[in-house]
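Hi there,

I know you've been waiting on this one. I reran it after we fixed the sequence typo, so this is the corrected version. Both the input and the resulting structure follow.
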Amino acid sequence: MLEKQREELRDDVAYLKSQSMRKNFVFTNIQEDNFSGNVTAEITETKLRKHLQETLKIAKDVADTLRFERVHRSPGQPVPGKIRNIVAKFTYFKDRKMVRRQWKHLSGTGCQMYEQFPPEVLEKRRKLVPKMKDAKKQGKRSWIVYDTLYVDGKPVKQ
């Protein structure tokens, strides 16, 4: 009984972590000219807005009006030859949703963007990806939401 309660508490904590990351997006492969590791958040935000305009084809006036609570590079010191990701916390969920819809413009650019999840949820999602691909090969519609796999609109037990 205690083991079950412990697992439920872990799931609750992971859910709460994911809710705090709900408005976050991670952007990869946006050039970094930071060899010292102390570039300001404003400069990082400017680079992100430029990326949104040039790569995601969002109009300049729209990109300039997007509101962020925080924009920063992934923690740690810069490593030569490696580009740290940018984590952006949108103030408004609808802005994040609008940016997310532009994902098709990223193909062939070497850049990616994805939702941020806590490590516990990422691990569950990694295990679900092969099952999702198998379902797609069988001609079924499948997708992952949070930590649940859906096949033809029905959740699949792990």
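Quick highlight: Helices lie at 2-20, 41-54, 60-65, 93-100, 119-137.

Best,
R. S.
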